[in-house]
Amino acid sequence: MAVRGIAIVGAGRIGRLHAVNLARIPGLRPVVVADPAPGAAAALAAELACEAVEDWHDVVSRPDVDAVAICSPTSLHVEQVVAFAVAGKHVFCEKPLASDARGADRALEAAEAAGIVLQVGYNRRFDRSFAAVRETVAAGRVGTPLIVRVTSRDPEPPPRVYLEHSGPSVLFLDTTSHDLDLLRFVTGAEIVAVSAQGASLVSDDARELGLADTAVTTVTFDTGAFGVIDNCWRSAYGYDQRLEVHGTDGMTEARNELRDTTDVADARGFHSPPLPHFFLDRYAIAYLLELKAFAAALEGDAVPVTGQDGRAAVAAAQAAALSAAESRIVRLDELG
Ligand SMILES: NC(=O)c1ccc[n+]([C@@H]2O[C@H](COP(=O)([O-])OP(=O)(O)OC[C@H]3O[C@@H](n4cnc5c(N)ncnc54)[C@H](O)[C@@H]3O)[C@@H](O)[C@H]2O)c1
């Protein structure tokens, strides 16, 4: 197997995780990290024993770069996907692919014209329980899906500096888009309309910046079934990640993972261990599996989360933000 050189663009929370995972995958080798924050690229590159640069433009045409992991802020994704695609580099792009459907279309067009692999980082598809729910539904064991429920609550809001550099739809694009993708993944159905309400209930930063930190989003699928997502950037008991599909013949659910499998019983009842604190713990295996799938896609396997999947989640998230802003149901075909 040829060893493929990978560039990592963005050395923040997720860039660091992906870089370390990429270094563990046979056939892939991180060759350069790009990040303009002082010392950020150098620190990560030192761990990986590879090069560091500040300006991502400097790595686009490097002959030793076969593919890129784009882990920069969302507002840069489209421009970077397009540039790397035009240079003939394969792209793993963190979610969301773009800030709106139009941007996603630009990224898709460039990827298709160049014939590159484009995979989007919806890591929850690689979680063992969510994948099992999909298999159960696809096998017809719960009959026809009628209502799909996703609960996705974060232990804390993103850092203020992150919120200051994000757009007004950040809750829907960053958080809800994961759940919208999960709805499509487990049902195999397309979202055609979205209704959402959002509010600032738990974060002073979000309130001061005019951002929602809590939201309920309802979708209609092309099958006529419904999906319901509840999101909150405060969960006092850890990272709450649950999924349920209610169908004509039964119900299947994915419960939370716990820190370990022990229980303690005493006179007050049975007590379980806490939930994983946040995404880096909860989805550690899923993050590795998605990059192994990317490596396999570079060798010719099917891309498990395509640019079209990325576009569909962005369009639904954009519709949710518009619905919340205008207090109305938004059909996805309105977005063009
Ligand atoms: N799939 C997931 O579970 C998941 C989790 C977290 C973040 N994300 C996504 O990953 C992206 C980054 O999020 P994060 O939490 O790592 O943010 P972060 O703020 O921790 O890191 C972003 C990094 O990008 C760097 N950066 C800024 N401008 C850049 C440029 N022009 N070129 C290269 N790098 C640049 C910043 O200096 C910073 O180091 C976002 O799109 C976010 O939605 C996905």
Radius of gyration: 20 Å
The DSSP helix count reads 11
Morphology? globular
Strand order of the largest sheet: 12-11-7-10-9-8-15
Structural class by secondary-structure content: alpha/beta
Mean of residue pLDDT values? 97
Q: What bound compounds does this protein have?
A: nicotinamide-adenine-dinucleotide
Q: Distance N terminus to C terminus?
A: 42 Å
Helicity level: 25-40%
Could you explain how this protein is built, in words?
The chain has 336 residues and is α/β, with parallel strands linked by helices. Helices cover 36% and strands 24% of the residues. It is built from eleven helices and 15 strands. It has helices spanning 13-23, 40-48, 77-86, 101-114, 128-138, 160-164, 170-187, 204-208, 279-282, 284-298, 307-326; strands at 4-9, 28-34, 51-53, 67-70, 90-93, 118-120, 145-153, 191-199, 214-221, 226-232, 240-247, 250-254, 264-266, 269-271, 330-331. The strands form three sheets. Strands 12-11-7-10-9-8-15 form a seven-stranded mixed β-sheet. It has a six-stranded parallel β-sheet with strand order 3-2-1-4-5-6, sandwiched between helices. A two-stranded antiparallel sheet has the order 13-14. Helix 2 links the parallel strand 2 (28-34) and strand 3. Helix 3 packs parallel to helix 4 (101-114) and helix 5 (128-138) crosses helix 7 (170-187). The N and C termini lie far apart (42 Å). The model has no long low-confidence stretch (mean pLDDT 97). Nicotinamide-adenine-dinucleotide (NAD) binds next to helix 1.
